[in-house]
Amino acid sequence: MKKKNGFSLVEILAVIVILSIVATMATFSVMKTRENSMKKLLNTKIDELEASAILYGQENQSSLEGKCTVDNEEYEFCKLVTVKDLIDNDYYTTSEENRNNKKDLINNVTNKSMLCDEIQIYKKNNRVYAKAINIKSNDENNVCNLEL
């Protein structure tokens, strides 16, 4: 009887196929986890922008004029601001920069500038609210050309 040393070609190929399948599944899992964390980070930025817009609205209530519709409800005291407005007026601070080394806020999902994104500030029952209504940076084809 001959003593067998090493592995056969079929055994080696089987191990390679199994490792390839496991690596592919792990890669997709990591990519999905990363994508979900980028979406959560973007939602956190939007929440912070809305909070900054509320502060802006509270300190500038006289500038809330004109009518608007938010979530299918009409309001009389409103103002539409951009992320750039909040940054320029020191209601939101960012350490992010664009290619020109200018202050910017980047959408983590699309890697687009959020400076053109719009937030509606409105007053209801003597309280100021804000809602991000036009997140242009979510559109892959939209380009924000504003610079700080």
In short:
With 148 residues, the chain is of the alpha+beta class. Helix content is 39%, strand content 18%. It has helices at residues 9-59, 83-88; strands spanning 68-70, 73-75, 78-82, 118-124, 127-134.
Give keywords.
148 residues, alpha+beta, two-stranded antiparallel sheet
In the sheet with the most strands, the strands line up as 3-4-5
What is the count of β-strands? 5
Q: Strand share of the residues?
A: 15-25%
Could you estimate the helical fraction of the residues in percent? 25-40%
Number of helices, where a helix is a run of at least 4 consecutive DSSP H or I residues: 2
Explain what this protein looks like in three dimensions.
It is a single chain. By secondary structure, this protein is of the alpha+beta class. Helices cover 39% and strands 18% of the residues. It contains 2 helices and 5 strands. It has helices at residues 9-59, 83-88, and strands at residues 68-70, 73-75, 78-82, 118-124, 127-134. The strands form 2 sheets. It has a 3-stranded antiparallel beta sheet. A hairpin with a 2-residue loop joins β4 (118-124) and β5 (127-134). The N and C termini lie far apart (82 Å).
Set down the secondary structure blueprint.
Layout: H1 9-59, E1 68-70, E2 73-75, E3 78-82, H2 83-88, E4 118-124, E5 127-134
